[in-house]
Model the fold of this input.
Amino acid sequence: MSQTLYFSISGVLLLEWQNISWTPVPSFNLLYDGFLCAEKPRGEFPFYLVVQQGRPPMGNRNRLIRTAHNFSVGEDMVCCGHRHNKIRWTSWLGNFPVEGGQSMAGKTVRVWYEFSNNKRSVWPWMFFPELLVCFHVVQPVIEWLLMGRDIFFLHAGAVEKEGKALLLAGRGGVYKTSHIISLLQQGWSFLSDDLVILRDAMIWPTPLHVSFFDYFFRHCPDEKLTWVRMLGSFFWLRRKSPLGFAVGRPAFPGAINIILRKNDHQSLEWSDRPFDDHVARMLIASDRLEKLNFNELSEVRGRMFLHLDQCRGTSLWENYWHRYETAILKAFQGVPCRVIRMNPEQFEAGNIDYILAG
Done:
């Protein structure tokens, strides 16, 4: 059954997702101060983004005049082909502000998407296919729009206690979610397990995010996914009530942990230091690779900045990272930092003292 969902992000951007397929996300995720709304919120938002299934009107598609690497652009329209394993889909982006939202002039940014060959029914995306669109298309657009207001998404987990945020950064697969869950069980409040909002040098919660849902959907403490375990986890989740962890308030960073993967089984290693330019480079490099989604330029499926730079001769990618680095250094300079090197298989729930820096 299709529905329309509204997401208010930091009171700056309103996302309206029309005709979204049935998804368990609204029922089994944490809600936070109108972040997810059943009805369109009242009031004005500087940025308005509409996402919907289907193709844009023919007149819009006819304005696509330049094509490169399964990517086409026009004066105010972008079209990109996507692939995730066996799943393929196409997205269109209209009224995209190349200047980062500075010249919107009241326009509404629009995203259309269409799955091909019924590949949306591939397990497990048959239950929530829009999560692919969210990660590969919608999130990059939101990041670019919010950049003009000095608001950034940071690939990291975070928890909060007594007004201070503990940030856990690192590439995918280093068990950030597992660490976050263990900290929640020790009385911390939830901010995010995979994506935090950095605004005004503070960490803001993003409790509605696919990884946190995905972890509980799988119900795999060791994060080893199999088809049988996922099927069992789905029915486990359907029998449970919505998640009930406390959501923290926006907080200034109190400590940062950067988790680096080791390829051996030697003992854990960590070193303490204040956040400086060297640590910032490690953090930014990790986030850059996540935003590229582990792909070479010719296979970038949702990070459209590089394609736009190629086709239009712009510097979107460079400009984004310049402003991102400035915000990171401003927010975290001098904050206690712990660099941790571990093999993910060494993680033991309940034994995370090495995480608590400072």
Notes: The longest strand covers residues 252-261. The first helix runs from residue 25 to 28.
